[in-house]
Structures are given as structure tokens and as C-alpha cells.
């Protein structure tokens, strides 16, 4: 199937599941994950209606930025502090804030650019050693820290990457835990905390994620096919 057909199919499933979850079709934002993809492929996706794309490496954003049509860029991968300066004026949302050091750097660079940066906190409810992200207790501390000390950051919600399971139903509990945290922290009253995005769900688990409350899914393989990292 073509990129366009894949996107149409995912949008259909996404809207069906959203309705099934008792929410309005269109409630869930599809972010096309474009890592390893060429500018041509990305532009094909944009022509097919994609408004938001996600990259997990700073270098790929820089390489493709001028070649890709008008679109919102999301930084979804682990972000090193020394690379924040390269993307601060290019991305509209950083999904992967997982340390105070990184928040401080984003705040500093946003201030220098005269902007406010929208971010999500990357949480790790399953406490997996191999994944970046922080625990529930640390999440609360980080939110408080950012609200107190990072005046150029707006907190827009949470992001997570579920552990990979052959059967996506096995990560349902994980998504449910993150949704619980999302609901809890969304009640914090602060002008720079406006929860809007719960970023969870990828190609193989986005249906379960939406059922459990996700409103932003990050989908690569199901749109563009399997990735080849050797190119
Ligand atoms: C690669 C990636 C995705 C997309 O994964 P697919 O399985 O290709 O849909 C989503 N989120 C993050 C953080 C990623 O790095």
C-alpha cells in the first residue's frame, strides 16, 4: 500500500477506536514518525494530510528541515542537553523531557530565543531499566521544579514508550497507569501547566493506547513500512 493509503487506513482505525473509547473522532492527533525517512517520503505524507511529524535524532531534524514542506516538528527521542540549541527554534513540542538538567537547558535556550517551549514529561511507569523516562514520584518533583524555575517552559502533558509485548493487551495496564498520572497532574493549577497531550501509542499498540486515554499517537512503521537503519 502507498503512504497515502496507509495514512487513510490508520486514520480510519484511529477514529473508530476513539469513538469506541467514548470520545469524539478527531480527538487523537496522529504524529507521523519520520526517522530514517527521506524528505520525499515525508512530503508525500504531508500531501496525504499529515500535519505533525516526529523525529528522534537532532541530526535528522537538521538534515531534513529545509527540504520538508510546512509541518509541525516534534522531538520524540532522547535529547542530549548539548543539542537543545540546534532545535529550539525548529520544533513545536519536545516529548522527551526526562531530567532537570535538560529542562534547565531548554529553559535557557528558549529564553535566548524569546520563546516559550512546549514540552511533555517522559514517564516510565513500568520502571524499565533500559528506557529513558522517570518514575511517578520523580515526575511530580520535575513538574514542580519546572513550574518554579523554568519560566520559558510550558508543560503540556506526558509521554511514554510502552515496553514491547507481542500482544499489545499486555501493556494495557502500563498505559492505564500513565493515564492515571496524567489525570492527577492535570489538576495542578498553574499558568504554565496546561495538559493537552497524552502521547502514547506506536504502530503496534496505538489502538490499546487510545482505549486507555491517549490523545496523541506516534506512528512510523505502519505509515512508511519497516525501517532500514543501514541506509
Ligand atoms: C520510532 C518511534 C516511534 C514509532 O515507532 P513505530 O513502531 O515505527 O510506529 C514512536 N515513538 C518513538 C519515541 C520512537 O522512537
UniProtKB/TrEMBL annotation:
The modification N6-(pyridoxal phosphate)lysine is found at residue 35. Residues 25-227 form the Alanine racemase N-terminal domain. The keyword Acetylation does not apply. InterPro entries: Ala_racemase_N, PLP-binding_barrel, PyrdxlP_homeostasis. GO terms for molecular function: pyridoxal phosphate binding. Its cofactor is pyridoxal 5'-phosphate. CDD domains: PLPDE_III_YBL036c_like. Pyridoxal 5'-phosphate (PLP)-binding protein, which is involved in PLP homeostasis. Belongs to the pyridoxal phosphate-binding protein YggS/PROSC family. This is Pyridoxal phosphate homeostasis protein. It comes from Clostridium aminobutyricum.
